[in-house]
Amino acid sequence: MTEPLVRSVTSQLIERVRVRILAGAYAPGAALRQDALAAEFGTSKIPVREALVRLQSEGLVNIFPNRGFQVRPLAASELDEIFNLRLLMEPAAAASGAKLATPADQKAAAEALRRLNTAMQAAAHESTGQLNRDFHLQLLVPRLQPIAAEILGRLHTLAQRYVQIHLQPAGRTQRALREHGALLELWCARRTAGLRELLYAHIETTRDDLARAVGGPQVQRRTAAGKPSAPGRPHRSAPVRGRA
Questions:
Q1: Which residues in 60-92 are b (16+ Cβ under 10 Å) and which e?
Q2: In what order do the strands lie in the sheet with 61-64?
Q3: What is the pLDDT of residues 190-215, one digit of tens each?
């Protein structure tokens, strides 16, 4: 197999294996055997190994010397770190995006939400994680905030497997539809204070729900300024719940 062909096959494998991991087809903690994947995709082991190494750099695969590759397990500590980083960056970046957005950017965000809503209403769980990521990143206006979009895009990729778990309980889809619609409305109206508050609560409550789902401890709530809330005085947006 020539080098350009190997690169092409590797690129395709990266996408296909990534989709399977994010959709849960390859379960967290499962072994990823190079010979089995090569047979599944009809290729040699060389591009399979290169694809798995690339996915390790994305945080989706673990590599163990003399033991091979494994789908990265879900962990409460990882969940907490991912969502806390989103809390630090995403509300401010979305508020900046609201100020910068053109009518074309607003139309693109509305279209991203339409695609997400369609998938959620059809219970197409294999695609909702990626579509959720697309909608949230549209609120940044990535062409004008490329560094923020790159960092938050990585965080959203890591969050996708957790977010899909969050949608499973009854009632979560309708709650997500309402909250995403409210976020888009605030964003298009450039109401940045309300946008920051709602998006912060949207991410925070998802993190807390998921901490319980994956067996982690209840995390202490933080205010929008990043400081822990005072005991007995929960963040005022705490009642808002939904899928981030």
A1: bbbeeeeeebbbbebebebbbebbbbbbeebbb
A2: 31-32, 68-71, 61-64
A3: 999 999 999 999 999 989 888 887 76
pTM above 0.70, yes or no: yes
Whether the CB-CB separation of 176 and 168 falls below 8 Å is answered with no
* Distance between first and last Cα of the chain: 43
Q: Which amino acid is at 51?
A: A
Residues 71-104 pLDDT 10s: 999 888 999 999 999 999 999 999 999 999 999 9
Domain range summary for the chain, segments of one domain joined by +:
3-71, 76-213
- The CATH H-level superfamily of 76-213 is GntR ligand-binding domain-like (1.20.120.530)
Identify the sign of the CA torsion 106, 142, 82, 73.
positive
Q: Which of 58, 223, 26, 24 minimizes the C-alpha distance to 156?
A: 58
Which CATH fold topology does 3-71 show? Arc Repressor Mutant, subunit A (1.10.10)
Q: Work out the percent of the chain whose per-residue pLDDT is above 70.
A: 83
What sign does the dihedral 83-88-89-93 (CA atoms) show?
Answer: positive
Instruction: Please return the burial class of 54, using the count of CB atoms within 10 Å of its CB with bins 0-12, 13-18 and 19+.
Output: middle
State both tokens at 193: 């204070």
Contact 168, 210 (CB under 8 A): no
